[in-house]
Amino acid sequence: MPSLCVFGAQWGDEGKGKIIDRMAADADVIVRYQGGANAGHTVVVGEERYVLHLIPSGILHAGTVNVIGSGVAIDPLTLLEEIAGLRERGVRVTHENLRVASNAHVIFQHHRRIDGLSERWRGDGRIGTTGRGIGPCYADKAARTGLRICDLLDTGRMRVRLTAALAEKNALIERVHGEAPMSLDEELARYAEVGDQLRAFVGDTGAEVRDAYAAGKQILFEGAQGLMLDLDHGTYPFVTSSSTGVGGVASGAGFPPSRLDHVVGIAKAYCTRVGEGPFPSELDNETGERLRAIGHEFGATTGRPRRAGWFDAVAVRYALELCGADGWIVTKLDVLSGFDTLFVGTEYAVDGEIVQRYPAGRPSVEGVEVRYREVPGWTEDISGVRRWEDLPERARAYVDLLEDLTGTPVEMVSVGPERDAVIRRPR
Ligand code: GDP
Ligand code: IMO
Ligand code: MG
C-alpha cells in the first residue's frame, strides 16, 4: 500500500512503536503527525531497547526518511537530546533521514511549567498529564500566540516573539498561580543556539511527503497516543490535545486524506490507561495487578504504573469505525497466557439500557457498566509462536472473537516486544 496510517485504538501504549518499526522495513517515509514527547514508543531490536518520544519509529531502518510533521508539538531540547542519544548508540541521524516541519509549534520551558501549574490548579479534576507541556503548547497554537520551528531559525524574530509570549505567561504564573516568574534572559539564552542546531533538519515537510507519495514511495503515518485520548472523540476532558486518529494526518502531516490508501488500528488483547479519566473495563483488583505485572505496564515516558483491564470491544469498535480502519493488529496476546478465564467487554449498560455503540454523545462514560463474555484461557507460552496454526486453539478462538466483535479483520497478532514476534493472520 503506497500510503498507510497506523493509529492507537485504545488509550495509548498499544505497541505502536514495535509495529511501526516492523512495518518500516517496507516503508520509505515514516511520518509522525501529532502529539509530542508525551509519547513513548518502544522498539526492541535484539538486545537493544529504544524509547522514541518525538522521532518516528522508522529511524532504526537505514534507507528510511523520518518526518516530524507540522501537527507535532516539538520540544526542541528533547528532540536534540533524542538525536544525540540515538547517535551515541550508533544510529545514523542526519538531515537526510530526519526531517522537521518548519511550521510545527515549539514547546518551551514555560509550557512545561504551566502544564504542571494547571494540573495543580485543577486539583481533584486533574488530567494526569505527562507534564511535557503538550496542552499549553497546543492552546497557544490555537490562540495564535505560539512560536513555530521557523521562528527559532531567526534569532531576532525568536527574541521578539518569545519576549511577547513570556510576558503574558509570566502574568499568568505570578498573578494566577502565585509563583515566581520565569527569567526571559534564561529562556532566550536556552533557545539561542537551538535554531542553529536544528536548521539542517528543517523544511517544508508537507511538500516533501506529498512529493515522495507522487514519486511512488511508501509512506507510513505513525499515530501517537490513542483514539480514546483524541481531543474531539476521546473521553474529554481526560484526553490529550491533538487529533490522534486518522483525522490528524491531513492537517498534521499536510497530506490529503483522499490519498490515504490503508488504515490500520492497533489494540492490546486487553486494555490499559495511564493518567486520570474513565476506563470502563478497568480492573482495580488483583487481576488488574497481574496484567500490569506480566505486561510490564509502566509508562514509557513517565514510568507511572498503567491502569489495566479487560479488552473493551465497544471502545475498540468505536475507534476502528471512526477511523475507517481497513484492519487492525492485536498486540500483547502473549500476556494473557496462563489466565484460566478471560473476559471480553462486549456491550455497555447505559442508564439501564444495553448498547453496542460507544456512547460518545454523553458528557462522560463514567457510570456506564460493561457487559462481559467469559471465555476459556490457555496455558501455553505463545511468545515463540510465529504461525497462526501453531497458536493454541483457545488463543485463536480469542482472536476470532475480537475480530467478530469489532467487525474489522485482524491482520496481525503480536506475541512479544521483539521485531519478529508477530503472526500474520491468514485469510
Ligand atoms: P506505544 O506507545 O504504543 O508504542 O507502546 P509502548 O512502547 O508505550 O508500550 C508497549 C510496551 O509493550 C513496550 O514495552 C513494548 O516493548 C511492549 N510490547 C509491544 N508489543 C508487545 C507484545 O506483543 N508482547 C509483549 N509482551 N510486549 C509487547
Ligand atoms: P503513546 O504515544 C498513554 C495521556 C496522559 C494523560 C493524557 C493527557 O506512548 O501511546 P498530555 O501530557 O498529553 O497532556 O496528557 O494523555 N497520554 C498518554 N497515555 N500513552 C501515550 O502516548 C500518552 N500521551 C499522553 O497520561 O492521561
Ligand atoms: Mg507509549
Question: Could you characterize what this model shows?
Answer:
The protein has 427 residues and is of the alpha/beta class. The protein folds into three domains: 3-102 and 201-262, Adenylosuccinate Synthetase, Chain A, domain 1; 109-198, Adenylosuccinate Synthetase, subunit A, domain 2 (Orthogonal Bundle), CATH 1.10.300; 266-424, Alpha-Beta Complex (Adenylosuccinate Synthetase, Chain A, domain 3), CATH 3.90.170. Helix content is 32%, strand content 20%. Strand 16 and strand 17 form a beta hairpin. The chain is globular and about 65 Å long. Helix 3 packs across helix 4 and helix 6 (155-176) runs antiparallel to helix 7. The strands form five sheets. It has a ten-stranded mixed β-sheet with strand order 9-7-5-2-10-1-11-15-19-20, with helices on both faces. Strands 14, 16, 17 and 18 form a four-stranded mixed β-sheet that branches. A two-stranded antiparallel sheet has the order 3-4. Bound molecules: guanosine-5'-diphosphate (GDP), 6-O-phosphoryl inosine monophosphate and magnesium ion.
In short:
This protein has 427 residues and is of the alpha/beta class.
Which features does this protein show?
Adenylosuccinate Synthetase, subunit A, domain 2; ten-stranded mixed sheet; Adenylosuccinate Synthetase, Chain A, domain 1; four-stranded mixed sheet; alpha/beta; binds magnesium ion; 427 residues; Adenylosuccinate Synthetase, Chain A, domain 3; single chain
